[in-house]
Design a protein that fits this description.
CATH superfamily of the largest domain: P-loop containing nucleotide triphosphate hydrolases
Number of domains: 3
Helix content: 40-55%
GO cellular component, one term: nucleus
Strand order of the largest sheet: 10-9-12-13-14-11-15
Number of strands: 15
Keywords: Hydrolase
Pfam families: AAA
Largest sheet: 7 strands, mixed
Organism: Zopfia rhizophila CBS 207.26
Protein name: P-loop containing nucleoside triphosphate hydrolase protein
Shape: elongated
CATH topology of the largest domain: Rossmann fold
Length: about 525
């Protein structure tokens, strides 16, 4: 560490000069801050070698934070600029218990940097030019051997730190706002996701798994037959039916391979430099990361007419996309240009995520039953799975999840079976003075009749409510009549039906498309507003 101390201690005045000169540069009209900063540091360190490197390519501070080196901030004279910010520490409940951590977002700083017995002085300089993305640059000062204008010690450090920076460390690449970031949050969000969480048609699930894993297992096969090693898949269908859950399972399964396959997730093309710049940056990173998975969220809203040709050129242009598997998701396949949706060699396979049929709804109920096996509060016999499947005709997986979540929360809050009476059609016809089979009193029955008649009149006045969702009539075994889980589920189904009926029918492109589905206009409940395109500068 002695050499580093010698550089640092013998150049304290130089460090102050660099900081003051940089501040003066920022006070006036800034021209070429990168070159100006380099010249300022070289002038302050005439006896040492200075190397400039972009933080995005070689992240020296993160490299040190990972335990690969030591970076000590030079705080003498407070010769640095930084914004102090707070961040939570821990997961879930731990965040509430922990006071958090304070960090610095540096605009200018100097560090004593120690790596494998070699010592350096590292300057971190950050600035932003108008209509450009922020610049973050390291200037590495070293007294090592210089050959052909390059410092051997510095280059050795940069090679090691650069290789580490290019790799993912419990992270997923996310493109948003015109640049790539490594997201630990998204990586943590997909941990634990598996194909067991995806209640899909078994054949479709198997085909997706074989498509994805088979692609990354078949490099030699593609080469043998001189076939470009690239592939594209489209997941389409109304929201809430497993597209996102399947993508999470794919990401986690690829990360669990012995040869970990990185995932790159594209949120938007929005950037001050324009969508073409964004598309170019996306494919440059994908080619550099290959073999990799490249995910486009809401493909139909990303690839608009103005950038379609440029996007297609990147997909199948002159540059090699070997090793890139693309997955594009969309809720509106009809809005995708045929050049994307119907042209093989771009997106070769399309998987339709439909509303779950009764068998799949039963499997989803079984999925929740297994999650509650250790719970002593809820009685969830196997026979209920088929009953729930019959009661939830027309539900997406998203609505099924909401049904179970709200049901369990209601029970957890202390609800009792007698709070939720089953009022069937025959109960309304019970003779005066007699209680219904489910224990509905004469007064309650009369009140229900009044409400039903009023509801009928309101319905006749409102043409838009003629197609109200109706809970299917399902025979309930006598021994389950007082089951609180089933009673609350039926109650929540009625609430969700009301929510579904309030969704406007004109959200879907045309009535013909709704008629093509056995669920008719009920599909409209699953649409969501198109994301507004915006530029962030």
């Amino acid at each position: 560490m002695g050499a580093a101390k010698n550089i640092l201690s013998s150049t304290q005045e130089s460090g102050k000069t660099v900081f003051e000169d940089f501040k003066q540069h920022c006070l006036g009209t800034r021209v070429d801050t990168r070159t100006t900063s380099l010249n300022i540091i070289r002038k302050a360190y005439p006896d040492y070698h200075v190397t400039e490197v972009d933080e995005s390519r070689v992240s020296l501070i993160e490299y040190a934070e990972a335990g690969k080196a030591i970076a000590i901030l030079d705080v003498e004279g407070e010769a640095f600029n930084a914004t102090r910010w707070w961040r939570p520490v821990g997961e879930r409940i731990e965040k509430k218990l922990h006071p958090g951590k304070l960090d610095d977002d540096f605009r200018f700083a100097r560090f004593q940097y120690i790596w494998e017995g070699k010592e350096f002085v590292v300057y971190l300089v950050r600035w932003k030019d108008m209509l450009e993305s922020p610049n973050k640059v390291f200037f590495v000062v070293s007294d090592g051997n210089v050959i052909d204008g390059h410092c051997i010690n510095t280059d050795t450090l940069l090679l090691s730190a650069g290789k580490w920076t290019s790799q993912l460390h419990e992270e997923i690449f996310v493109f948003d706002g015109g640049h790539w970031d490594k997201s630990k949050e998204l990586w943590r969000a997909v941990q634990g996701s598996s194909w067991d969480d995806c209640i899909l048609d078994l054949e479709m699930k198997r085909n997706i798994q074989e498509d994805v894993q088979g692609f990354f297992n078949s490099h030699d096969l593609y080469t043998e037959f001189a076939v470009p090693w690239k592939r594209g898949i489209i997941f389409h269908g109304v929201p809430g039916n497993g597209k996102t859950v399947s993508i999470r399972a794919i990401i986690n399964s690829l990360n669990s391979r012995p040869d970990q396959i990185p995932s790159l997730y594209v949120k938007s093309f929005d950037t001050c430099q324009g969508e073409q710049y964004a598309i170019r940056q996306i494919f440059l990173q994908a080619r550099k990361s290959a073999p990799c998975l490249l995910i486009f969220e809401d493909l139909d809203s990303l690839v608009i007419d103005e950038v379609r040709s440029y996007f297609l050129n990147e997909v199948d242009g002159l540059e090699s996309n070997d090793g890139i598997l693309m997955i594009g998701s969309t809720n509106h396949l009809d809005r995708l240009d045929p050049a994307i949706a119907k042209r093989p060699s771009r997106f070769d396979r399309k998987y339709h995520f439909k509303l779950p049929v009764e068998e799949e709804r039963s499997a989803y109920a079984e999925y929740w039953r297994k999650k509650l096996l250790k719970n002593t509060t809820v009685e969830f016999p196997t026979v209920l799975c088929d009953i729930i499947a019959k009661l939830t005709e027309g539900f997406s997986f998203a609505y099924l999840k909401e049904l179970f979540v709200m049901t369990l929360l209601t029970i957890a809050r202390g609800a009792k079976a007698e709070d939720f009476e089953f009022v069937e059609a025959e109960d309304l016809e019970a003779p005066e003075g007699e209680a219904s089979a489910n224990g509905v009193s004469e007064a309650l029955c009369g009140k229900i009749k009044e409400q039903a008649e009023k509801s009928k009149l309101d319905t006749e006045k409102d043409e838009s409510k003629k197609s109200k969702m109706v809970m299917p009539a399902v025979e309930i075994p006598e021994h389950l009549g007082s089951n609180i889980l089933l009673r609350v589920i039926k109650h929540q189904i009625r609430i969700l039906h009301s929510e579904m009926d309030n969704t406007k029918e004109d959200q879907w492109p045309s009535s013909k498309e709704s008629m093509s589905s056995p669920f008719g206009s009920f599909q409209d409940q699953f649409t969501r507003p198109m994301r507004r395109r915006r530029r962030r500068c």
